[in-house]
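Bug #77: duplicate submission created two jobs. Keeping one. Sequence:
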Amino acid sequence: MTDSTPPSDTPDAKAPNGNGVQTTGAPGPGFRILAQYVRDLSFENPKAPDSLRVEGKPAIDLGVEMNAQGRADGLFEVDLKLSIKATTDSMPVFHVELLYGGLFALQGVSEADIEPLLLTECPRYLFPFAREIIARATADGGFYPPFMMDPIDFAAIYAARKEEVARGAPVGQA
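Kept job's structure:
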């Protein structure tokens, strides 16, 4: 979903380049990112400098949480919480937690589509920035190469949580 105008069915001679794109009328549904911010960041390297000389790959425990809430001014806050713990058999390597947020304005989105939009598409836009912050934190903590998170399928996480709620199971961390 973007802030774009849908194409017209017939060519419009008044379009700037005659490509048939409609340039007037109400825009379709979409959202705008008004702000992005770090709400909380924590990095721990408790066994440094020994943890910097670990042989092989440590075990990674990744936690992902998404939350959204409306505001009185009609905007929406979306939080993406990422928690990464790296350990070996003998010691913790690092632990980083990031709570990264965004302020979004929705336009023309139906009531039924607000929750999926806020919990799938909005985190998808926030993720690359959060990923970079985590990579820098691990690099600044002395780890080379820095920890680079794989892309996350927020739609699958959202669908799994909806299924858990439908079954009446307690909703846990994905």
